[in-house]
Amino acid sequence: MDHVKKGDNVCVQPIIYDGDCRSCVQGLVNCCDKNGFVGMSGWGGGLSEHVVLPASCVKPLPANVSLELGALVEPLAVGWHAVDISPYKEGDSVLVLGAGPIGLVVVQVLVGKKCKNIIVSEVSKGRSEFAKKFGAHHIIDPTSCDVVEEVARLTGGKGADVAFDAAGVQIGLDTAMKAIKARGTLVNIAVWEKRATLQMNDVVFRERHYMGVATFALGDFEAVIEAISTGE
Length: 232
Hints:
The chain is of the alpha/beta class. The chain has helices spanning 67-70, 73-85, 101-112, 125-134, 147-154, 170-179, 200-204, 220-230, and strands spanning 10-12, 15-16, 36-39, 42-45, 58-60, 93-97, 117-121, 138-140, 160-165, 180-188, 209-212. The strands form three sheets. It has a six-stranded parallel β-sheet, with helices on both faces.
C-alpha cells in the first residue's frame, strides 16, 4: 500500500464484494450478488477502535478536507452516484421525493451540477427548511397541495425531466410517476420495506423510465472528495 502512510487522514469506501460474480466481472461491484458493508456485514464492527481493510477501500483525504467532512463522503457518494448515472443534464427540472439525509445529499449534488430548478416534496417542516438551506428552489408539502399540478406549474407545464425517490413510499412513487414528463425518468434510491407496485399504463403510454441505483460505484468516492476539496 503506497497511496497512504501512517498518520494520513482517510475515509473508507465500505462496499464488500466477491470480485467474481457476473456484476463484479463487469466492474459493477456495488451490484455484487454477495454485497455487504464494512462495519455492518463483516470485517469488524462500525464502532471498532481498529479495523483491517483492503488497501483499495482506503481513500486519502486532501489537506483541506477535514475528518468531519470525510465522514460525509459515504452518504454524499450515494447522491453523487444517483445523479451521475441518471439522465440528468444541465437545464433539466428535477423533483426530489423526501428531504431526509439522502434527499438532501441529492439536492447538494444537483446544486453542484448547476441545476436551476430543484423541486423537493417533503411533509416535515424541519426537513423542508434544511432542503431550502441546501439549495432547493421549491418545496412542496404533499399533504396540502397536488404535487403533480404543482410540479407542472413549476416546470411550465412540461413536468419534471428527472425525479429521485429518496422516500420509498407507495403514494410518492405513484405521484412522481405522473409528475415526470413523457420519456422522463424516475430514479429509485430508497430501500423499500414493502413490495411496491407500478401503474404500468403510466409508464407505457408516456414512455417513462424507472431505474434503480445501488449505493456507489468505483470512482465515486474519489469524485466526491475532489468536489469537496475544490468547493464544487
